[in-house]
Amino acid sequence: MLRPSEMGIRVDKGQKMPPYLQIAHAIIEEIRRGRLQPGGALPGTRHLAEELGVNRKTVILAYDELIAQGWLTPERARGTFVSPRLPTAQPAAFAFRPVETAPVPQEPDFRLPGQKTRVDILLPEPGVLMFDDGAPDTRLVPVNEMARAYRRSLLSLSRDNLLGYGDPRGTRALRRSISAMLNADRGLNTTADTICLTRGSQMAIFIAARVLTQSGDTAVLESLSYPPAREAFLANGVEVVTARVDEKGMRLDDLEKLCRIKRVRCVYLTPHHQFPTTVLLPPERRLRLLALADQFGFAIIEDDYDHDFHFSHRPMLPLASADQWGKVAYIGSLSKLLTPSLRSGYIAGAKRFVDRVAEEILLIDRQGDPATELAVAEMMEAGEIRRHARKVLRIYDDRRMSFADLLKRHFGSAIDFELPDGGLAFWVRFAENVDVGELVLSAARHGVKILPGATYSMSGEPTSGLRLGFASLNERELTEAVSRLASSWQGLGI
Questions:
Q1: By CB neighbour count within 10 A (0-12 exposed, 13-18 middle, 19+ buried), where does 447 fall?
Q2: pLDDT at 1
Q3: Distances in Å between the alpha carbon of 274 and those of 13, 203, 206, 293?
Q4: List of E strands, 340-424
């Protein structure tokens, strides 16, 4: 056994690191250097404390920490020893980081199979305005009502011992509230057992793709579509092919041709406000799509991502409301109505399909957040969410009209767009002589962030359009953002 004076332990009380950690570091270093061998005895805590001039409790804390981490082992009536299971070579310090650490490696020492996903995102920066792809204004969130509901939810769940693991489909109270809303407002025929809660609509898309397709299958998306949906299928080894989009949404003649030459397993689309172009799939195409699904045996993923935002007339009922065969997996979200950080999505469909979705959730997420789910359910039952929806709809409608006026004033006939009946974004098409990719780069230099139009092209080919979200910007910000975008366009010298 090394005497305390022979051990390289120094305690500097001027350091920010607590003395017991300094002692632990020093003992680990003695083991690494081989001066303390596996099975070797350590000085008694009282003796070492006297040598170091510290309280005995400090040494006890250091020993206890090293015992917990496996470096030392106590033996009753004999003392404390270096663990005999340690290798004789110098081990890495698992318990603590050395004072001088090596730089974090840029590349891991293991395989990273698969391909990098092709999903562009915009991140906020000070002084920079963003035309997002259609996000809400989180400054309008009813935070006081949410906070009260969340507090009541936590208290109730704690009192009833329900804060542990539960149903992977999510809290029954929220599933029941969502079912009632879908049946009353959107014409669906659901129950709490045919709904599964997810952490936002993106999780629902990813899981639906996993459940409905497997490697080697074929899925059809619109030629302009939601990039994360494409990546969800590709990540599952699925071949993604596209049908063109016109002023009425997906071209079903394209879809039928694809079905006659390929075994299509799944069709993903956004019929309510087509993403990114905002156009509405009319009733005749909806009926034909359902007939094609029955004829060729494919499943439909209906992403109704912003059903709540409609300005000119009552929203058209979803495809799922006319589904007689169980062909439609219906995806929705409360995140845009409240706040994206709430992560409150859902997926509805045939019970067997929903049960499979719940099995997938067990593998990746186990379950959702019961406190948040119960709080949202309470707000739905109390009418808070409906009142909030009416309030923000008026605000967003004013911003929609102001945005249209600003675009016309600054760009005139150089751009073309249809005033969207619903949703939180415009699809703005520029003249053919405008390099939209260069315009995006120029806008960034002027302090405006926009996703390139090619982001929404499933083939990656350039497009003349830009999806410009307006709802997250107030009147002053909209005015400034359009002014900066116009300056960027004029700087191209066209």
A1: middle
A2: 60
A3: 65, 19, 19, 19
A4: 345-348, 415-416
* Interatomic CA distance for residues 315 and 312, integer angstroms: 9
The reply to whether the predicted model has a pTM over 0.85 is: no
pLDDT for residue 111: 77
- How far does CA 301 lie from the centroid of its chain? 19
Kindly report whether the peptide bond that precedes residue 462 is cis, defined as omega within 30 degrees of 0: no
Whether the CB-CB separation of 226 and 271 falls below 8 Å is answered with: no
User: DSSP E strands: which ranges in 259-335?
Assistant: 264-269, 299-303, 328-333
Per-residue pLDDT tens over the stretch 299-319: 999 999 988 888 877 778 999
Set out the domains of the chain in order of their start, with CATH numbers.
4-82 (1.10.10.10), 129-137+387-490 (3.90.1150.10), 142-384 (3.40.640.10)
pLDDT of residue 95: 46
Q: Ramachandran region of residue 32, left (φ > 0), alpha (ψ -120 to 50) or beta?
A: alpha
CB atoms within 10 A of CB 425: 27
User: Could you give the 3-state DSSP secondary structure of residue 196?
Assistant: strand
Residues 345/197, Cβ–Cβ less than 8 Å: yes
On the question of pLDDT at 252 being above 90, the answer is: yes
- Secondary structure class of 361 (helix, strand, coil): helix
Token pair 């989180």 is at which residue?
138
Conformational region of residue 390, where left means phi above 0, alpha means psi within -120 to 50, and beta covers everything else? alpha
What's the pLDDT band for 89 if we cut at 50, 70, 90? very low
E strand or H helix at 131? strand 129-131
CB 231 within 8 A of CB 275: no
pLDDT on residue 87: 54
Nearest to 26 by CA among 93, 118, 122: 93
pLDDT digits (tens, 9 = 90+) for 378-408: 999 999 999 999 999 999 999 999 999 999 9
Bridge partners, residue 53, by sequence: none
